[in-house]
Amino acid sequence: MKKEETYPRSFSHIGITVPDIKKAVKFYAEVMGWYVIMEPSTVKKERETAIGQMCIDVFGEDWEQFEIAHMSTSDGIGIELFSFPNGIKEAPEFNPFNTGLFHFCVQDPNIESLIDKIVSAGGKQRMPIREYYPNDKPYKMCYVEDPFGIVFEIYTHSYELTYSSGAYED
Questions:
Q1: The pTM is what?
Q2: Residue 169, pLDDT score
C-alpha cells in the first residue's frame, strides 16, 4: 500500500453571514481595504444550474433566496459574504469555549489605526491592545468586532513570526 504524502493546504476563503450585505461590503471595503470581486447579488433556489443545485446541497430545502458578495484580502484570501432574509439578524453570543469556529484574524502593522477605523465605523474594541513580549519585541494583538457583532482578531506580525521558535529567543 502506497503511503499518501501529507502537505500543508492553503487557505482559500471564509464565509461570513451578515445581516445587511451592502453595509457589510461597504465596511469591509472601506475599513479593511478588501477588494470587491463580485458585488452583492441574489441567488434564488432552483435546480436548473450547477450553482443552484450546489446551494440546495449546502443549505437544504428551507430557503428561497439569499444575497452573496465576494471580496478578497491583499494576499488573495477570499471573503464570501452571505445575507439570508429569514436569518437571525444579530450575532450569537461570543463563546469561544464551545466547539466550532470563533474568530478569524487579520494582520496590520498599524494596529492602533485599524482599531480606530473599526470603532469609527460602528465596531468595537473588545480588549486593550496586548503585547506578546512587552519592551522586547513589537508583536501585538487585539480582539475587535465589526458593526454586526462578528468577532475577529488583529495581529501586527505574521502568524509564523509570532509563534515560531525564533520569536521566543532573547
A1: 0.90
A2: 57
